Amino acid sequence: MSVRPEEIDRGVSEPASLRAGHERAEANVPLLNIANVLTIARIVLVPLFVLALFADGGHDTRWRVIAAAVFGLAAITDRFDGQLARKYGLVTDFGKLADPIADKALIGSALIGLSMLGDLPWWITLVICGRELGITVLRLVVVRRGVIPAGRGGKLKTLVQSVAIALLLLPLSGAYETAGMWLMYLAVALTVGTGLDYVGQAARLWLAGGRARSESRS
Q1: Who contacts 204 (Cβ-Cβ below 8 Å, separation ≥6)?
Q2: CA separation for the pair 139, 198 (Å, rounded)
Q3: H helices within 122-174, ranges in order?
Q4: Hey, how many other C-beta atoms are within 10 angstroms of the C-beta on 69?
Q5: How many CB atoms lie within 10 A of CB 46?
Q6: 3-state DSSP call for residue 218?
Q7: How far is the C-alpha of 216 from the C-alpha of 91, rounded, in Å?
Q8: How many CB atoms lie within 10 A of CB 140?
Q9: For the chain, what percent of residues have pLDDT higher than 90?
């Protein structure tokens, strides 16, 4: 990673000279740094997680614990690579591209895997994955008009998703299993809510950019 594109609000408000300074600083950051290594490690852990999840039919207690542990380790790297990148100035173009890919691969593979094993309703997987895909496309559409900063809701959504998935991965029953599903329902609500908020921000950014261009031509 190092930092998701939406976490760096350099869009329409930052002066061109300051943006150029950021770009020069990023150009001097070595590609092989600790933040990017953690991001790459997360990508490598995704297929290992999938193999553990489906081992012995997907419901073996030992393998499910291993799958949950691998998922938890990968999720932790997502936390630290961003912090390291911001704290030590390790932001790179590679990190901006690879980090969201790693995140979506990890969460998406977990949701799809759980649904294939019958442990999670498919509609939940489709809602969450559809939202992530739609927001990714929307981000590409509006990126020329500016960058939308990450909000607390988005970070809370990711945290709740990760905890809910971890609970559903573990071979739990009774109240713990129920807690996992309720957390997943909360994750769905946060996913939809933050998605709608992002669409609203993107629309405002697009309209503001259009007005600015019209004024500059007049």
Answers
A1: none
A2: 9
A3: 122-142, 152-169
A4: 15
A5: 21
A6: coil
A7: 32
A8: 10
A9: 42
* Distance from C-alpha of 9 to C-alpha of 46, rounded to nearest angstrom: 29
Look at residue 209 in the predicted model and tell me its pLDDT.
Answer: 65
Answer whether 164's CB lies under 8 Å from 114's CB. no
| Contacts for 137 with CB less than 8 Å, ≥ 6 apart | none
Quick count: other Cβ atoms within 10 Å of Cβ 193?
A: 13
CA-CA distance, 53 to 119, in Å (whole number)?
Answer: 12
Please calculate the CA angle 122-126-131 and round it to the nearest 5 degrees: 155
The whole-number pLDDT of residue 151 equals 65
Q: Which residues of the chain have pLDDT under 50?
A: 1-3, 5-25
Cα(9)–Cα(13) distance, integer angstroms: 8
With CA atoms as reference, report the closest residue to 191 among 103, 127, 141: 127
**pLDDT number for residue 149:** 62
Contact indicator for 42, 125 with CB cutoff of 8 Å: no
> CB within 8 A of 83, min separation 6: which ones?
none
Q: Which residues, including other chains, have CB under 8 Å from residue 118's CB and lie 6 or more apart?
A: none
Cβ atoms 80, 38 nearer than 8 A:
yes
CA count, 13 A, side-chain hemisphere, 32: 0
Q: Which residue has the tokens 């908020």?
A: 197
pLDDT at residue 24, as a whole number: 47
* Residue 6 in tokens: 């939406």
CA distances to 33, 74, 80, 117, 127 from 49, rounded to whole Å, are: 24, 9, 19, 14, 22
